């Protein structure tokens, strides 16, 4: 009789050990993990060059229509470059902030 009891105990301990070792422990992301995730999201956003290029095209078109000269088109393009780059920079910053905040909310 004691032999069967010993097997049952060993079997139960084996199952408990298997369950404990098979479960994964999930830890909350740290501030550094969230910063890295936000950096990746920011890099995946479109580049500022594209925003500046589109801004220059729009500014040049607007300057050519309104000013009706090449100087006005050049001024419009210059203003468009600055505006387009600033707009894209703001969008990238928003992507970083949103991703970082969402990650930190998961850590609570």
Radius of gyration: 30 Å
Task: Compute the separation of the termini in Å.
Answer: 52 Å
Number of helices: 4
Backbone structural class: mainly alpha
How would you concisely characterize the structure shown here?
By secondary structure, the chain is an all-alpha fold.
Structure keywords:
single chain; 108 residues; mainly alpha; 85% helix; 0% strand
Characterization of the model:
The chain is mainly alpha-helical and 108 residues long. It has one domain (29-106). The protein has helices at 2-22, 31-44, 48-67, 70-106. The protein starts with a helix and ends with a helix. The mean pLDDT is 78.
Please outline the helices and strands.
Layout: H1 2-22, H2 31-44, H3 48-67, H4 70-106
Helix pairs in contact: 2-4, 3-4
């Amino acid at each position: 009789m004691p032999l069967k009891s010993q097997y049952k105990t060993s079997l139960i301990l084996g199952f408990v050990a298997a369950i404990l070792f098979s479960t994964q422990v999930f830890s909350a992301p740290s501030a550094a993990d969230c910063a890295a995730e936000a950096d990746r999201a920011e890099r995946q956003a479109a580049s500022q060059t594209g925003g500046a290029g589109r801004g220059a095209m729009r500014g040049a078109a607007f300057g050519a229509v309104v000013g009706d000269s090449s100087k006005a088109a050049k001024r419009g393009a210059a203003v468009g470059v600055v505006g387009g780059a600033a707009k894209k920079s703001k969008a990238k910053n928003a992507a970083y902030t949103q991703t970082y905040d969402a990650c930190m909310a998961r850590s609570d």
